[in-house]
Amino acid sequence: MLEGILGTYGYLFIGVVVSLSSTAIIGVFSALQKKELAGDAIAHATLPGVALSFIITGLKAPLYLTIGSFLSGMGALLLIDYLPGRTNLKKDSVMALIIAMFFGVGLLLLSYIQHHPTGSAPAGLSHWLLGDVPSLVDEDIKAFFLLAVGIGSTLFCCYHQWMLYCFDPAFAQSIGLPVKRLQWLFQSLTVLAIILGIQTVGIILITAVLVTPVTAARFWSDRLGYILGITAFLASLAGCLGMVASYYFADVPTGPVIVLIMTLLSLASFLFAPKKGLLAKKWRLYQYQQKVLEENILKLFYQVLQKEGCGYDTPQPLSRLLEQRALSSSQLLHGLNRLKKKRLVTKKGSDLFQLTLAGKEKGEKILRLHELWEAYLRTHLHIQPSHVHDDAESIEHLITPAIEKDLNASLAKVK
Question: pLDDT for 276-289, tens place per residue?
Answer without folding.
Answer: 999 999 999 999 99
